[in-house]
Amino acid sequence: MTIILLSIPCWLIPLLVGLICAFLGYLLGKLLSSKNTTTIDVDVYKNRISKLETDLAACKSSKSNVSHTSGAANTIASSLTATNTIKGVAFNPEEAKAVFGKKITENDLTVVEGIGPKIKELFHNHDVTTWADLANCTVEKCKDVLKSGGKRFEMHKPGTWPKQAEYAAKGQWKALKEWQSQLNGGK
């Protein structure tokens, strides 16, 4: 055995060990990195879709506010405004408790995933006190509210908050709960 090891040049063994380690490290890196990027990509696209949906709603809302001179156009504009403005329905606390498993207070903004008591106070300071008010906000207005609270609030991503608030305002508790189960911290 020692005769065989003596016949192999000294530099060949460290070279082979290094190549094997490099190959295994490469494979391990590929396996670990592929799982993380998929999750990140899905979250990025969900946030982008949510932002685009709220931007579309804001665009439709601003378009419907344009004044028209003909009576038919005014009728169309008023019907567009009515469909874009979210109005709350009668609050049913029993139905909300059945879905969420806890008591829900009417117009409690903390029902929206990503909004806590401090952010709720910020919205109340900007006259956004109901689910319908939040549902009618644009994502940009939500970001402005967060900016008013300082640096520690700017990190939050309110892209889905108006849509979540719309579900709450309309009493669509099951749909809200299902969507929140897919969200990651309000995103």
What attributes characterize this protein structure?
transmembrane helix, mainly alpha, single chain, 187 residues
Shape: elongated
Rg over CA atoms, rounded to whole Å, is 27 Å
The secondary-structure element order is HHHHHHHHHH
State the low-pLDDT regions, or none. 67-83
Give the overall average pLDDT: 79
The biggest sheet amounts to: none
The tally of strands reads 0
Residue share in helix = 55-70%
Draw up the topology in text.
Elements: H1 2-7, H2 12-64, H3 71-84, H4 93-100, H5 117-125, H6 131-135, H7 139-148, H8 151-154, H9 161-169, H10 173-182
Helix pairs in contact: 2-3
In short, what is this structure?
With 187 residues, the protein is an all-alpha fold. It is built from ten helices and no strands.
